[in-house]
Amino acid sequence: MENKKSDFSSWYNEIIDLSGLSDKRYPIKGMNVWLPYGLKVMKGIDRIIRDNVDISGFQEVQFPVLITRDQLSIEFEHVKGFENEVYWVTRGGREPLEVEMALRPTSEAAMYGMFQLWVRAHTDLPLKIYQIVSVYRYETKHTRTFIRIREIHFFEAHTAHTDYDSAEKQMVEYRQIWDQISSELCLPFVVDQRPDWDKFPGAMYTLAFDTAMPGGRSLQIGTIHQYGENFSRNYGIEYLKEDGTHSYVSQTTFGLSERLLAAVIGIHGDDTGLIFPPSIAPVQIVIIPIPSEGADTDSYCSRVSQILSAEGFRVHIDNRDNYTPGFKFNEWEMKGVPLRIEIGGREVRDNKITMRLRTGGDRIKCRIDDLPSEASRALASLKEELRRRAFEHFERSIEDGNSLEIMKKGETMFRFYWCGSKECSDRIEGETGKTVLGMQKENENKGKCLICGKDGRVATASTPY
Amino acid sequence: MENKKSDFSSWYNEIIDLSGLSDKRYPIKGMNVWLPYGLKVMKGIDRIIRDNVDISGFQEVQFPVLITRDQLSIEFEHVKGFENEVYWVTRGGREPLEVEMALRPTSEAAMYGMFQLWVRAHTDLPLKIYQIVSVYRYETKHTRTFIRIREIHFFEAHTAHTDYDSAEKQMVEYRQIWDQISSELCLPFVVDQRPDWDKFPGAMYTLAFDTAMPGGRSLQIGTIHQYGENFSRNYGIEYLKEDGTHSYVSQTTFGLSERLLAAVIGIHGDDTGLIFPPSIAPVQIVIIPIPSEGADTDSYCSRVSQILSAEGFRVHIDNRDNYTPGFKFNEWEMKGVPLRIEIGGREVRDNKITMRLRTGGDRIKCRIDDLPSEASRALASLKEELRRRAFEHFERSIEDGNSLEIMKKGETMFRFYWCGSKECSDRIEGETGKTVLGMQKENENKGKCLICGKDGRVATASTPY
Lengths: 465, 465
Fold this sequence. Notes:
Strand content of chain A: 25-35%
Oligomer: homodimer
Helix content of chain A: 25-40%
Number of domains of chain A: 3
Number of helices of chain A: 14
C-alpha cells in the first residue's frame, strides 16, 4: 500500500479500493457505486446525524428529486449560484417535456413552495425538518470519491422561525449538534464565516466547518446558513402573528455530506489502512481463531461472540479456513476494525481473552468474565487515541501566516489577520495561491490586516478540496 | 370522512391527507412529498424487508441514479420495455451532454456492467445484493399516491448464480422471504405467473404477488423474476468454473415498492381511518390522560410510558392540554395506532391500566404490573384480527368466473380455467374488460379452458391498478 504521508492522494484512492468502500468503475465519471462495506459505514454516520437532530425536535421528510425551472428560479441569487451545475431532465419517453426539470442540487427550491402551504400561523413555528437524500451537481472539475462527485449523499436540515432572533438561536443549536456529531467521529475543525462572495447562494451568511486533510489541504465538512427572510419573501412563506398581522418567516439550513466519511478515512487512517471510530465501525470487534491442537477454538469464539453481541457490540468471527490468522489480522486492520480478539489454545484453556487495538499498543489480556467491560474500555480508549491524534494533526496543519511568502511556500492551512475586504483577499489569493476561507468565528483575537494594516481579526486560508 | 365501501377511491385519498402520510400538492404531478408520519411507516416496511433479506445473505449496495443510453440498450427486450417511460437527462449546466442519461426505471442496466467486473470465478457466486432507492417512470396514466406515481420508493434484489437450477432455488428463497414480509404486514395474495406478453422486459418468467383492494381491483404488490442467461449473455457476466471452462451466470430479481403501503392502507383501514400492523406502526401504543380531580395522571402516564419503552414498544403520550380526550381518541384512531391506553383517576388510584384495541372490542383492564405482557398480548391479537379480516376480504374478492358474462358484470377478481393461449386471453379481455393476470402458480387444479375448452389450469383475471 502507498505511504499515506508521502502520497496522500494515491493512498486515499487505494484504501477505498482495497477495503471495498466504493467502486468508481461505474461508466459515469463522478458517480460511484456504494459497496456493502462503505454503505454500512455511511449509514453509521447517518445514524449519528439522525440521533442528534431527532432529539432536537427535527422531523424527517423526503422531497421529490425533480424541481421545475419555475420553482428553481424564484430566488434569484440561488438559481444564479446553481444553474451552471444542474442536470436538466428535458425528455420523458420519446417526447420533450413541456417543463424542464432539474435534478435537485439542494432542496430549498423543492421545499419552500410547500413551506408556503404548511406555515399558516405562529403556532406552526418553528418548523424543523430534514432529509437524507442524493443531490446532483454537474461537476466539471476533477472528481474524487466522497469529496468531489456528481451524486452526493447529502443531509439537509431546513427550519422556519417567527423572526431573525429565533433563527439565530437555531444557528446556535446547529453548532451544538455539530459538536456532538464531530465528537463521535473524532474530527477537529475550525469555524470559518465564509466571505460574502463565497457564502451559500441566497444566504445572509454561511458558517463552515473546515478540517485539515493529510497533505495540508482543507476540507469543508459541514455548513450552517442563516437565510433571514431572503427565501421566505420570494416563496411567500408568511404566518399570522398573535397580534393578527402577518410576517415572513426567518429560515436556516444545515448541510452535511459523505465528505464526513472522506474526513474519517483521511484523518484517522494510517499506512496499514482505515481506522474507524467505534460508533460507525460496521464491525467493532473481529474475533480470529488461532487453530491449536486439542483446543476447541470455534466454540470458544462463538461463546465470546454471544457475550459481546448480547451487550450490543457489532461482532464478526472470521472463521474462514483457507486463510492464515496473519492474513486475517492484516485484512481486518486494513478495513479499520477498532478491536481484534485472538483466540488460541491458551485462551481456551485459561478462560482468557487476548485483545489488540487497531491503534496499536500492547495486547490486552483479561478473564472472559470481564469481557464486555474490558471491551468497552478498550474501544473508549481507541476513540480517545483517535481524537488525540486527529487534534494533534490538526494543530500541526494550521500555521501562522505572518507573510505572503510563508503562505505561498507552505503546504498547510494558515491563520492570519485580515480586515475582511475583498481587495486584501484578492491580493492574498493572487500572490499565495491559497483561498481565503473566511474569518474564524470563534477566535476573538484582534490584529492588523496582513495586507492593508487596518484592524483585523483571525482568518483562515488554505488550498481547499 | 368518506365511507370506505361506497367510495374507496375518495376514502383512500382523504385518509392519506388527513393522517399526514404524503402531500401531493408538490408542483410535479405524480411526485409527492413523504411527510414525517408516512416516511416513518415506509421505513418500518423497509426494516422488515431488510431484516428478512439480510438474514438470507443479501448485502445492501447503492448504485447511481443515472444510466447512460449505451448501458440501457445492451439488453434489447429490456430497453424496448422501458424506453417509453424513461426520463432523460440531456443537459448539464448550460451545455448539452455528450451522452444522454436515463433516470433509472429499475437497475438491471446500472448493475450488470459492474457484475461483469465483480464476478470472476465460481467462488464469487452466488452474488446476492439489494438496494432501496427511488426509481423513476414517466407515467402518462392517471397517477395515484403510493400506487401509480413517477418517483417510486423501490426495493430491488439482484442475484447471480452458477446455473439455472441454483437460480431456481433462489426463486424459492424469495418466495419464503415474501411469506415472512407479507405475514408481518397481514397481506393476503395470490401468486400469478404473468403471461409471456406481460412478463418483466428481459425475464424468462415473472411471478407476481397480486392482492385485492377494496372495490375489487387487484394490486400487484411484489414480483420475482427468473432471468436465466438473458442478461448475462448481453452484459458478458461470465465466470470460471471449477473445471477450467467459462459459463454465463443465471440471474434473478425480486422487486417491492411503496405499493405495500398502499395495500396496508387500503386493506386494513376502516371508516374511522388507518389501522397499522404493530410491526410498522410509528406509534404502537398511545397513552391519553383523562384529567381527573386530585389524581396525578401525568406522572402515572410517564410511569406507564417508561415501562413500555423499556420493553421496546414505540409509545407516545398525548398530553396536549388544548384538546379533549375524545378529540385525541379520534385523531389517533384515524392515524392507525393499534393500541390506546386511557389513564384517568380510577387507573391512578387502583394502579390499573385500561386499554383499547384499534380493531374494537371491549376495553381491556389489567394491573400495571402485568402491563408489558398484556400489551404484547393485545398487539398480537390485533395482528391476528387484521389478518383474519384481510383474508376474509380476500376470499370474498376472488369469485369463480364461470362465464364471460359473470366476469364482465362482476366487480371482483376472478379465477377461471385457461389454456394459456394469447387468443383466449384476448377474447376474455375484449369481452369482459378484465385483464388476465396469469396462471395461479400454486393452484394445481385442472379444468377446461373457459374459451376454447382445451386442457387448462386456474388463472386470475381482474381490473388491475
